[in-house]
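The pair is listed for reference:
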Amino acid sequence: MNAPRIRARDLMTEQELMEVRTRSTWKGVALIAHAWALILGSIAMVAVWPNPFTFLLAVGIIGSRQLGLAILMHDGAHGSLANGDKLNMFLSQWFCAYPVFAETRAYRRYHLQHHAHTQQDNDPDLILSAPFPITQPSYRRKFWRDITGQTGYQQRKAQFLNAIGEPAWPLRQRAANFWEKLGPQIVVNAILFAGLAAAGVWWAYPLLWLTPLMTWMMVISRVRNIAEHAVVPDSNDPLRNTRTTRAGFLERLFVAPYYVNYHLEHHLLFYVPCYNLRRVHEILTRGPHAARMEVQPSYAAVLRLATSRPKDQDRPGELVSNVRRARTGAVVDGNQAASGF
């Protein structure tokens, strides 16, 4: 079943639509540069002031920027990162997707099905929202798996096994499949490691690139997935089957970078680049549909809704984790870091 939709012209004027649809290559490049500047700046901070506080701060910032790169990859999948298909794909792949072991084209094929069937039975992302609400102990167990790297390990393991192919395949076929699935990602990460090593901080790759990727990014990817579609009021109403969550400075820094919190606006107008979503929100909140829009005041408020199941209904192991239930061939959350956008 296709998801119900509202016509763009029923949401805003032609002039407003023209305004928010406008794409800017320099803005897309600036967001990519911002993400990498924070990543490299955080590494430099730890190199200059090595202590537990700066390390934990760097893990939080870098993990959020890794999610940010996945968000910008998502914009590339929608053709919104830059003007021109070739430049859009080049920036999305080499500077956003490959560093976090994702792939824009494979993600696009998967993700557009989510937009076509949002919160319907054939939505490939329904698996991310359907189990909610859950109990607080259940969420704590998920948080522990995420922050300790168990979720990240299972996702990478599934991704690697998918890349090496079937044992019965000829070696040439397996090698070709591996290159197609993971080759460019490994090349980009090798370049990143070599660059850090040349700068005298080789240790930053395992400690300040892979560690955030496997831990904090997993935590906030789950939070983002929950905020976007879990416990929404009406799965058949396009203004209420997706959620926008207000985000303050700290939430934008550590949890919700690059306007990802404006998810309702993205679903209503999915061709709008991320840096124009706040403007879409401003327009909609002055319009006739404002009262129906599903908007929550914070990510903490969303998590309270998502963990509202009574504790006496807690059944450890009853809800199969997203990792185990994920399709083997799907883009793994960097993944599914982008899958629910």
Q: What stands out?
A: The chain is about 60% helix and 0% strand. The chain has one domain: 8-322.
